[in-house]
Amino acid sequence: MRYALLGDIHSSVEDLRDVLNDIQKHAPDAELIGTGDLFECIISKKRAPFERFGKLDDVMLYSDELMDMLTFPSVRGNQEDRIAQITESDEPLLQRIRTMEERFRIEEKAEVIHGHQWEWGGDPWMPVFPETGPDLIFFGHSHDSGLSIDNQVEEVGFGIPYDVTKGRTFVNVGAVVGDRSWVLYDSDAGIVIFMKVID
């Protein structure tokens, strides 16, 4: 089975359209899975603890065109967490955001999580990976495509298959917004391929 993982869209309709077209071109059979931050919250982290809003229009960027493209399941990111925290409304979209899972499994082989739940730091900015859990984890959050196997950061290139069966592996799928990148995961072959829309 093949999966196309994409995230950190931040409400960018143009970038998402390009990535979805790229997925259709290279992997039309792939099942799409989101790694969170589908939406852009327009209320800052500093303001969020002190303010509440009655409608999503005051809190986030979205459009009918964006919603028409968001047909795939996704874990929730920090943007969705903030939107849910500061909005008090019965709008169906808010209920959808609130029920997004924090993590889920792919065929019991891999886990998908946004990654904001982890501690981050250092230069380059990297997460402190959890010591327990499945041997293959897909995440986002930093907007940087990346691969770490047994705590060793690997150099990655686009269009190149990488074996994800030889150790505890963390795959940062990169960002749709700005970078227009995504990851193709072949669970049968045990490989990932970092993909990027090329103009």
From TrEMBL:
Q: SUPFAM superfamilies attached here?
A: Metallo-dependent phosphatases (SSF56300)
Indicate what this protein is called per its UniProt record: Calcineurin-like phosphoesterase superfamily domain protein
Query: Which family is annotated?
Result: Belongs to the metallophosphoesterase superfamily. YfcE family.
Which organism is this entry from?
Bhargavaea cecembensis DSE10
What Gene3D superfamilies does the annotation carry?
A: 3.60.21.10
Superkingdom to which the source organism belongs: Bacteria
The record's annotation in CDD domains points to: MPP_superfamily
Q: Name one Pfam family in it.
A: Metallophos_2
**Which residues are in the Calcineurin-like phosphoesterase domain?**
1-180
The cross-references to InterPro entries, in alphabetical order and at most eight, read:
Calcineurin-like_PHP_lpxH, Metallo-depent_PP-like
